[in-house]
Amino acid sequence: MGILKMNTARKEDANLVRNTLEGDSDAFQALVERYEVRLFAMVRHYTRNTMEIEDIVQDTFLKAYRRLDSFDHRSSFYTWIYRIATNTVLDVLKRRGRSPVQAAPDPELLAEVAPCDVPSPSRDIEASELREITHEVLTHLPDIFRTTLIMREFDEMTYQEIADTLGISIGTVESRLFRARARFKDKLLSLYPEFGDQ
Amino acid sequence: MMNCKECLPLVAGYLDEELSELQAAPLRQHFLDCRSCRCALAAEKSLRRWFSFENSLDVVVPEGFARRVARRAFAGDTGSSDEIPFLVPAASPRAAAVEPGVRDFLLHATAAAAVLLLVFSAWMRSTQLPASDNLSATEQGATLEQLLERADELNAADARRQDAQADEDEDKDN
Q1: Residue at B22 is within a domain
Q2: Searching chain B, which residue's CA lies closest to the CA of residue A161?
Q3: 121-160 in A: which are within 8 Å (CB) of B?
Q4: In whole angstroms, what is the distance from residue B144 CA to residue B61 CA?
Q5: How does pLDDT run across A96-120, given as a tens digit for each residue?
Q6: Contact flag A40-B74 (C-beta cutoff 8 Å)
Q7: Which residues of A touch B11 (CB under 8 A)?
């Protein structure tokens, strides 16, 4: 996205936020419409249950509305609401005991995973199959790695945006991405060893 | 001149376009010279293809989602995750949702009922009020003493009547 386009989007967001705070529900509806697809897509990386996805995205927007007066425009509205969405989805997974790594020690303190080469997905693999495999592997990653990887690979956030969203340093983002990718490769090959033979 | 030890930690940042040109230029040169680092670059690129599908292409947002969320927000709904995490089944928000046509009808019917109730209350009140404008609770010109005196007279008359009735009843019995 060009800088000019980005600035225009930010200005539009700022207007919608201001109008919402002044009691214009149409403005808030417009804000939801601007970001609903991206948030549905983002939350889908954490759960495949469509009703749960809708609930999480809805909660995200309701929380955003409640805290809208605390949005200070230093970051983009999307970065701000993305952070709320991330916290909401991780909170839901944690409270429902769905994360397979909740009881594990901090993955960043564990011994480094030896990266292994993983081939590109074969050309004849269906896009839907590719998506299913990738999602399945992602669900096996610890939350902090999955979150960082999703932000970078799917939402194409910069290291700085990831750092701002998660409240960590850029160095930590680099470190997490490195470990996340290594774990992704490792898990992919352990779940789908056939891809190691190509 | 960059060596492999300096090059490898930068490969991911290079593909993520996070390096400055000052960092990227010697890296590119090193890739040209070093087959081993070129392989590392290719492996890193291969990995990224697992994430290359278009993520938002087939996202289906339920119809009217934004309108529903905006209405809930302005109605004071704070969401379910914070306060009452999972006491409500996931399906309940949609189960409680009403079709827009039905909802509009209910809103209009409720408003009409409220207006009718208001008109009826006003009518009921008007029928119970005294017709006169003179709403004084005391007789005009009477002082408190005069009123008490009159009350005593009425009580005395009442007592005399009861005594007379009692005497009459006694005579009949005899």
Answers
A1: yes
A2: B18
A3: 121, 127, 130-131, 133-134, 137, 149, 152-154, 158-159
A4: 79
A5: 765 543 334 444 444 444 445 666 6
A6: no
A7: none
Q: Is B14 a member of any domain?
A: yes
Q: Are A75 and A164 in contact (CB under 8 A)?
A: yes
Question: What is the DSSP track for B10-56?
Answer: GHHHHHTT-S-HHHHHHHHHHHHH-HHHHHHHHHHHHHHGGG-S-TT
Q: Which of A28, A96, A185 has its CB closest to that of B70?
A: A28
CATH 1.10.1740.10 in chain A, residue ranges: 3-95
CA gap A162, A12 in Å, rounded: 23
Per cent of chain A over pLDDT 70 is 81
Domain encompassing residue B19: 4-50
Is this complex's ipTM strictly greater than 0.90?
A: no
Instruction: Return the number of other C-beta atoms located less than 10 Å from residue A128's C-beta.
Output: 10
Q: How far apart are CA B79 and CA A66, in angstroms?
A: 10
Q: Is residue B153 part of a domain?
A: no
Q: Which of B20, B59, B80, B84 to mutate to test the interface with A (most CBs of A within 10 A)?
A: B59
- Residue A52 and residue A50: Cα distance in Å, rounded? 5
Tell me which of A28, A57, A58 to substitute to probe the interface with B (most B C-beta atoms closer than 10 Å): A58
User: Residue B60, SS3?
Assistant: coil
A107-197 is classed CATH 3.65.10.10: no
Compute CA distances A155 → A41, A161, B8, B92, B147, whole Å: 9, 10, 25, 30, 90
Domain count, chain B: 2
pLDDT of residue A132: 85
Higher pLDDT pick, B165 / B87 = B165
- CATH class, range A3-95: mainly alpha
Q: What is the pLDDT of residue B132?
A: 54
- Tell me, yes or no, if B63 comes closer than 8 A to chain A by beta carbon: no
- Is there a domain that residue B162 lies in? no
